[in-house]
């Protein structure tokens, strides 16, 4: 922040307050400029009868330092607030449906149905592709008579 002050001495200075105005300012809001002018008025009234320009400038410098501190504090608070919001958003993204027995059983039924459908499609594709050959395990699982067929073959 920056401000340029212009002081004009009157004939009866220091028994009379000097004229002052804010010529230019940077990064100050209107209410900050108003506060600076009020501060100048107050300090000028308190220092009547004494040389006061240095006192007035010092008071304005302190006020500008306070404004800078307020801006820093506000920015830090905004940054913390954004971080908290981002953290909450992140929590919401990873927060899902709580698992209960009913939810799990419903999901399991749907999952099993999907797996069965995938197996059926795969079997149909294999049949269409001419891959009707079953593995030995699949043959034994389908026809339990094969369990004893080798023993009968060896006995003969």
From TrEMBL:
UniProt-listed Pfam families: DFRP_C, RWD
Protein origin, superkingdom: Eukaryota
InterPro entries xref list: GIR2-like (IPR040213), RWD_dom (IPR006575), UBQ-conjugating_enzyme/RWD (IPR016135), ZC3H15/TMA46_C (IPR032378)
CDD domains: RWD_RWDD1 (cd23816)
Region of interest (Disordered), ranges: 75-95
Compositionally skewed regions (Basic and acidic residues) per UniProt: 75-84
Database matches in SUPFAM superfamilies: UBC-like
Boundaries of every RWD domain copy: 1-67
Protein name in the entry: RWDD1 protein
């Amino acid at each position: 922040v920056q401000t340029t002050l212009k002081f004009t001495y009157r004939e009866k200075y220091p028994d009379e307050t000097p004229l002052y105005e804010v010529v230019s300012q940077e990064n100050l809001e209107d209410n900050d400029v108003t506060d600076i002018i009020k501060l100048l008025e107050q300090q000028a009234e308190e220092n009547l009868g004494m040389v006061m320009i240095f006192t007035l400038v010092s008071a304005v410098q302190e006020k500008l330092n306070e404004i800078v501190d307020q801006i820093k504090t506000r920015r830090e608070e905004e940054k913390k607030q954004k971080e908290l919001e981002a953290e909450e958003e992140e929590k919401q993204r990873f927060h899902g449906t709580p698992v209960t027995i009913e939810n799990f059983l419903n999901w399991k039924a749907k999952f099993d149905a999907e797996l069965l459908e995938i197996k059926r499609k795969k079997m149909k594709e294999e049949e269409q592709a001419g891959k009707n050959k079953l593995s030995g395990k699949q043959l034994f699982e389908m026809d339990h008579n094969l369990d004893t067929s080798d023993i009968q073959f060896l006995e003969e």
